[in-house]
Specification:
single chain, alpha+beta, Helicase, Ruva Protein, domain 3, Lysozyme, 4 domains, 5-stranded antiparallel β-sheet, two-stranded antiparallel sheet, 9 strands, globular, binds calcium ion
């Protein structure tokens, strides 16, 4: 859930990184030493301030924290050491596991979703997409006590005024009896429940859909789903419209990513755009803007107003794209392939949460102290990967957990072909691309896949290009490719140097 004007990094941590905190300790500033007497003095002041006028003193005193929580100030000032590529971000948020969980949830809550659709006009799968990305279908709600977090943020460091309002709103929620005080836990910044609403959003938009008189976004799935639909409706959702489409740009087309610059579908048709599979663009979007999350060479999308309502949930285009893509896969009820039709411009695609867990377990087994296995590649895991790469001469030692590193550390146990790419970690879907490795992974250079080649010669034929890549690795392990459409309509990748 959106935190107005906090940095993007904080947004990410607040919204999907509920458990990033467990693996991100290494990159954090040290916990500040917060004075409790200053904290208590601050709370005394707040109690009598206008923001807390409608909070009764019983409620205030009852839930007033006895100590500040310095860890939330750490989180507020946290700067990740590593930047995340969009394909890493998407592959963790939209993986086979989440699609299957979503399909199950769709069947389980079919009647409720149908009622929600008829009341709010929001497509069931769009609600499910938000639910899946926000809280993993109610499984990841955040465990930080909200009153401690919000009271601490109200009294120290940046943005105190904003958090004072949210602290007051959180108290109003328990005062009204919507949510039990013990259930008031969430992200460090105060987003909570299955919808990960901030308290102010809760007061504005939460609804009681199961009719028990309480808006319980923690324990009631109908309340949570209906509140999500109400949120999207409130942000301008257009009933009956898709969020948008993956599209194919005509050869040689150049454009900047500009989602907000919406044009009619006729305009885009005239520009030569088609659906990604080549079919003509439908006319069921009122208007759409072009979204290019990885630039002109990666997957391209035309997105309409409903995409913008996903965006308003967390002020991140990649985040909205995860919701959009997840909702499509749940609609299709197909978890077998979670890639887009156009490959990301990388030869080293991202990994699923299960693969992240496998990597973490392998690192633990190899003696790296990364805490626990949670499937979230945080700074601790990335630091360990970097150390592992450095110690074994793997280039680049960038700490990134992609398909190449997965194969390196998992070795021969890794599946040869997966939804995330071919056995070389390259995008699947085009036979001319997959018949031979474009850029064998570090693992190949280390002899692992080369050895496999000798035992299963039909995987690919030895090529001079393969031999070349056995040469000492360049320091650029993240080779980029440009997609070029041949005259016969097929697509090839050209390496960009
Ligand atoms: Ca209820």
């Amino acid at each position: 859930m959106r935190l107005t004007q906090l940095s993007t990094l904080s947004l990410l941590t607040a919204a999907i990184g509920l458990s990033l905190t467990s693996t991100a300790q290494a990159a954090r500033p040290p916990a500040p030493d917060l004075s409790n007497s200053e904290f208590q003095q601050c709370l005394d002041g707040l109690k009598n301030s206008s923001k807390f006028r409608s909070v009764d003193s019983f409620t205030f005193n009852n839930y007033r924290p006895s100590q500040p929580d310095p860890s939330v100030i750490q989180s507020l000032n946290y700067q990740p050491e590593f930047q995340k590529d969009v394909w890493d971000y998407l592959s963790a948020l939209v993986d086979k596991e989440r699609v299957e969980d979503g399909i199950r949830a769709k069947h389980q809550w079919r009647d409720t979703l149908r009622q929600i659709e008829s009341r709010y006009g929001v497509k069931a799968e769009h609600v499910l997409g938000v639910w899946g990305v926000e809280s993993n279908f109610g499984q990841t709600l955040g465990k930080k006590p909200l009153f401690e977090s919000l009271a601490t943020l109200s009294c120290f460091d940046r943005r105190q005024s904003y958090f004072q309002g949210e602290f007051a709103n959180a108290l109003k929620i328990v005062q009204r009896g919507d949510i039990a005080p013990n259930d008031m836990t969430g992200s460090w910044a105060g987003a909570f429940g299955q919808t990960q609403f901030m308290p102010s959003t809760f007061l504005e938009l939460a609804v009681d859909f199961d009719g028990d008189g309480r808006r319980d976004l923690v324990n009631s799935v109908p309340d949570a789903l209906a509140s999500t639909a109400n949120f999207l409706d409130n942000r301008g959702y257009r009933t009956g419209e898709p969020w948008g489409y993956e599209v194919k740009l005509p050869d040689g087309y150049w454009a900047a990513s500009d989602r907000k610059n919406k044009k009619s579908m006729s305009h885009w048709r005239n520009q030569g755009l088609t659906l990604a599979d080549g079919r003509p663009l439908p006319y069921d979007l009122n208007s759409a803007g072009l979204l290019l999350p990885a630039g002109i060479d990666g997957p391209a999308f035309l997105v309409g107003k409903n995409f913008d309502t996903f965006y308003s949930y967390n002020a991140s285009e990649n985040y909205a794209l995860a919701i959009a893509h997840l909702s499509d896969l749940i609609t299709r009820e197909d978890s077998s392939k979670t890639d887009f039709i156009t490959a990301w411009p990388t030869d080293d695609p991202g990994i699923s949460r299960q693969q992240a867990k496998d990597i973490q377990q392998a690192l633990l087994d190899a003696g790296y102290d990364i805490g626990g296995v949670d499937g979230i590649i945080g700074d601790n895991t990335r630091t360990a990967i970097q150390q592992y790469q450095t110690s074994r001469g793997i280039f680049p030692a960038d700490g990134r957990a992609g398909q190449k590193f997965y194969r390196t550390i998992i070795g021969s146990a890794a599946p040869r072909q997966s939804q995330y790419g071919n056995q070389y970690g390259q995008p699947v879907g085009n036979p001319s691309i997959n018949s031979q490795p474009l850029n064998p992974a570090p693992a190949d250079r280390m002899g692992q896949l080369i050895q496999r080649q000798t035992t299963t010669p039909n995987v690919y034929s030895p090529q001079p290009s393969v031999q070349r890549t056995i040469q000492p690795a360049s320091n650029n392990g993240n080779i980029r490719y440009r997609r070029v459409t041949n005259s016969d309509g097929s697509v090839r990748l050209e390496r960009i140097n």
